[in-house]
Description:
The protein is an alpha/beta fold. It has two domains: 13-121 and 150-236, Rossmann fold (3-Layer(aba) Sandwich), CATH 3.40.50; 242-343. The chain has helices at residues 60-74, 89-99, 115-119, 153-160, 180-185, 226-229, 242-252, 258-272, 281-291, 299-310, 317-332, 340-343, and strands at 13-16, 79-83, 104-108, 120-135, 138-151, 163-167, 188-190, 200-202, 208-214, 233-236. The strands form three sheets. A six-stranded mixed sheet has the order 1-3-6-9-2-10, with helices on both faces. A two-stranded antiparallel sheet has the order 4-5.
Amino acid sequence: MTGGNRRERKVRGSQIRSSREEPTTTPAGRRHATDRATDRDTAERSDRFVPDDDAFVETSAVRALKSRIDRWLEADRPVHLVGPTGCGKTALAMAVARERDRPVVFINGDADLETSDLVGEFAESERHTVNDKYVHNVQKQTEVVRDRWVDNPLTTAVEDGATLVYNEFSRTKPVANNVLLSVFEEGVLELPGQRGESRYVDVHPEFRAVLTSNSAEYAGVHRPQDALLDRLVGIHMDFYDADTERAIVREAVDDADPAVVADVVSTLRALRDEVDLTVGTRQMVMTAEGLSTVDAVDADTVADVVVDVLGSKVATRDEARALRETVLSVLAAGTTGLTSDSAE
């Protein structure tokens, strides 16, 4: 990459690339990735982080959800996964995206994300110096400085026919997502800040999108504009069944004792019905990780681990004490199997 940066490039997404050959034709007057090899260094696209999927497991419940998502992606409709935090939305979206055998682009939404963070901006400058010895012993020097457009993840995704995974979609302010309207409806991405023919990008026919959002009652969530929601297929998720949650925890925690995993899942599923907190599958994984570090598992240890895992969700020490008592009560009930003898 030539020239110096005027400021640090803002990139909030990431991607992996496939080796599939891309078509090079596009209607006249529209940009296409293969037409702009000199506009950006495409090699840099492969260096960004994409969430790992090593712990992803499939059960009949997971396959049923994947089938629903695949159906709509095949119909060229963007899919919006909505559900409580920790229920596996992002892992499911990434698994579906990877199985399409297309490049994958990942964006993580937040309140500070702007349209330019999605599509790109004039974020760099190029400086060229030309030395011209046009008279003997006389040298003329000309310096040319020009702005250089840098694409951000959405532009990369629509040009390369990638599968876009837009995580925490509803945490982004709606105005920043207006650019998606024409992408999903007309198949054209408009680049604010660009000029002339370069302002419009044709959406690759293989481009697809899976968006994830927490349920509307969560803090920090914005309701997307109705015009955009009208163009999305909404699939509402809840926590998986017990068999699926056990499989996820076993896969995520190395050398986990299956009996302990089963009891952890049972305990936290029972706790889920007793507290006004979100007790997700992620908290089950964290609890199993915590218990894997102790030699003797008793009620007090389990209560400490669970309170630590859920501690950031309560506001005061009194609430933490009340949570601990609830955990001990669940253990004493003897319905989960985990340290029920010591809890009584």
